[in-house]
Amino acid sequence: MAKYIDVHPDNPQPRAIGQVADTVRQGGLIVYPTDSCFALGCQLGSRDGIERIRTIRRLDDRHHFTLVCQNFAQLGQFVHVDNDVFRAVKASTPGSYTFILPATREVPRKLLHPKKRTVGVRIPDHRVAQALLAELGEPLVSSTLLLPDEEEPLTQGWEIKERLDHQVDAVVDSGDCGTEPTTVIDFSSGEAEIIREGAGDISRFE
């Protein structure tokens, strides 16, 4: 059974955040809130966690996983960002955007797009997610919690706990999340290509 961890949305309790971080460090798979939707998350090196995300969402090997980072300095360890792209990404973070960029050697092969050698990265504008990332000191491997054959992500923590009780290790609830996933911008060619229009304003990339 998954642990249900209630966290205050504006002042996340350190003890609760520490409990979530410990679950991640022990190889657990969590559901946590972001500034767009609830997301599935696991530790960077957790092969089991990645496979469990694939199973829950029925993803193939072409799916872009996202490294959810605390800040821009951390993001820069995992992707190559040239000057023009740097300015565009920096101006849009933190926020509801995922950027696809060429990965550095710090990124495990299982997370890379098999042909492009790219990975998604984002910095969420959400206090609970930020508190968790600060406690972990490393990114979370993440994917939007959108279940197969469903058009919209789940928005209620208690419902997620009921639906995924035996498939995840913890559900972090800080209130309802939205149903609109991040806007995805592919910068792997050096130019902005809008892959998915979502919660982030696309006008600056058009």
TrEMBL record:
Gene3D superfamilies: DHBP synthase (3.90.870.10)
Domain YrdC-like residue range list: 14-200
UniProt EC number: 2.7.7.87
Enzyme class name: transferase
Domain of life: Bacteria
InterPro entries assigned: DHBP_synth_RibB-like_a/b_dom, Sua5-like_dom, SUA5_domain
SUPFAM superfamilies: YrdC/RibB
Keyword field: Nucleotidyltransferase, Transferase
Coiled coil residues, start to end: none
A Pfam match: Sua5_yciO_yrdC
PANTHER family: DHBP SYNTHASE RIBB-LIKE ALPHA/BETA DOMAIN-CONTAINING PROTEIN (PTHR42828), THREONYLCARBAMOYL-AMP SYNTHASE (PTHR42828:SF3)
Protein name: L-threonylcarbamoyladenylate synthase
UniProt organism field: Streptomyces heilongjiangensis
Taxon lineage: Bacteria, Bacillati, Actinomycetota, Actinomycetes, Kitasatosporales
